[in-house]
Amino acid sequence: MLSRRLAVLSASVIRSSIRSKPILTFPSVQFHPSQLPHSSNSHATFIPNAFMDSLGFRAYSLLSLNDLRDNIPRKKPTRKGRGIGSGKGKTAGRGHKGQRARKGSKLGFEGGQTPLRRRMPKRGFKNPFSLTFQPVGLGKIAWLINAGKIDSSELITMKTLKDTGAIGKQIKDGVRLMGRGAEQIQWPIHLEVSRVTVRAKAAVEAAGGSVRRVYYNKLGFRALLKPEWFEKKGRLLPKAARPPPKQNDKVDSIGRLPAPTKPIPFLVEGSQDLHVRSLN
């Protein structure tokens, strides 16, 4: 249908271009009846202008209402098991008898030979209980204290280390305190980290300070490092989580989280009115 429309439109454009060109007018030319084999009138005259005037012009649109149709695929889906005329009838492409002709067939079965999953060697091991800690040295903490970015009289938490740039922004499972630059610690400091080496702990305690190993889960780290995220989402800050049994001997206490400041609605007994109480 579209190709026919295009053909008619191209013919109409050609005719309109012919009509737009100036045509030389000649006087009527008399033809002999023998020169007009298709004419029955012996006195017929051929007038070019009259022939050109008889041509009409009709504009055709490339899109019409009878050309509209749904955007459906031309190839129809294969209907298995619906007769021989469907192309996949009778056995539906499964052949005759055998294990794969039925529904039950084991995934990865290769006819009795050793399957690929057993032929390929297994190399390496990934511990699902492994933890990744970000290291930070005592020398860097001492440099930040001397620069005035960290107050040594206050408790230095992992949020303090993140805000001052002592560690990166991505904290997966916590922070490990290392003993690099331990000789620069000449004053008592108090820290809260996830892990600490023996050398770093000895250097901090020798200067009169203390190091505490605290536990945070994924949600607890978000509440510690980005408490504004919960307020933005309209959620309450979570409670501090207890460490799993495998980490009880590796931590000293549960990590402390900021107290929720958003008002919590509650109902008073014997009343249907909604009261608001702020937890501070």
From TrEMBL:
Stretches with biased composition (Basic residues): 91-105
In terms of Pfam families, this protein maps to:
Ribosomal_L27A
Q: Which SUPFAM superfamilies match?
A: Ribosomal proteins L15p and L18e (SSF52080)
Q: Biological process GO annotation list?
A: translation
Domain Large ribosomal subunit protein uL15/eL18, by residue range, is 135-211
Gene Ontology MF annotations: mRNA binding; structural constituent of ribosome
Its GO CC terms? mitochondrial large ribosomal subunit
Kindly state which keywords UniProt assigns to this record, in alphabetical order: Ribonucleoprotein, Ribosomal protein
Q: Which InterPro entries match?
A: Ribosomal_uL15, Ribosomal_uL15/eL18, Ribosomal_uL15/eL18_sf, Ribosomal_uL15_bac-type
The record's region (Disordered) falls at: 71-123, 238-263
NCBIfam families referenced in this protein's UniProt entry, alphabetically: rplO_bact (TIGR01071)
UniProt lists the family membership as follows: Belongs to the universal ribosomal protein uL15 family.
Classification via PANTHER family:
50S RIBOSOMAL PROTEIN L15, LARGE RIBOSOMAL SUBUNIT PROTEIN UL15M
According to UniProt, the name of this protein is Large ribosomal subunit protein uL15/eL18 domain-containing protein
| Annotated organism of origin | Lupinus luteus (European yellow lupine)
